[in-house]
Amino acid sequence: MSMKKEYAALGLALALAGCGGGGQAVTQPxxxxxxxxxxxxxxxxxxxxxxxxxxxxxxxxxxxxxxxDVTAIGDAGYNLAxxxxxxxxxxxxxxxxxxxxxxxAMRGQTGDDAGLDLVQAGALHRLGQDTAAAAxxxxxxxxxxxxxxxxxxxxxxxxxxxxxxxxxxxSVDAYFANLTGKLPDGWTADAKEIAARNLLVTGGSTQTAMxxxxxxxxxxxxxxxxxxxxxALGVAARAADKAGNTQAAAQLYARASQSAQxxxxxxxxxxxxxxxxxxxxxNPFALPVAATTTKKK
Length: 297
Fold this sequence. Notes:
The chain is mainly alpha-helical. It has helices spanning 32-46, 50-67, 70-86, 90-106, 114-126, 130-140, 146-163, 166-177, 185-202, 206-222, 226-242, 246-262, 266-276, 289-296, and strands spanning 3-7, 15-19. It has a two-stranded antiparallel sheet with strand order 1-2. Strand 1 (3-7) and strand 2 (15-19) form a beta hairpin. It is globular. This is Lipoprotein.
């Protein structure tokens, strides 16, 4: 079965591995059912039907085990863990990563897997285990796949900012600043967010930090990457607060909270809601109180 790499925006904008197609030369007989399961799951991700994607990646993985195909097992396991992470189930993602590593090792693949390291780093960071997350992200940053390296650097920067590791944050900022050529829009958004974070911890221009964060948010809005967009709005709120513009900061935190809530990231939504204080963002699409009460019954 010929495998290829596809990339889609998920929570941390992690890479998804795809099965077959894409104009690649087929070097051995394929499994149509396995390919269809992978393709259906990928389409579901594109439509943000993550529960469907999870179900289809499980089916693909089961088919890959029946086939005893180490490459397909690795791809299906990685994709399943990535979707679980974006569903807000980091513990499930970690379990999938561990089981996938075991299945690969049983079939003779014992080397490091940077993709699994990347998902592991994201899951551990979500669980607040930043020391272990940083180690996994550093391993992923040594990958040959430039897309995995870029996302690993982003995670390293987020962890460093959250944990007060200014040296690592500065090194990640330098990594993004030294990228050359025409960059994918997603990379530009990541670079802008990291630059904004670094400016805020080094006493740089709060205006520039806010502009960078808002540019990252705008790019992610275009890419339908709402979780990361909300996070960029949170960084912009930090910049406004540091500049002394408390009203703007409160409004940005409220917007970030509301966006994260609708995107299914309740933890971040609750945090930003607290930081917004008394500021609230009206939701004209919320169910009336009476309807909500009736629905609960």
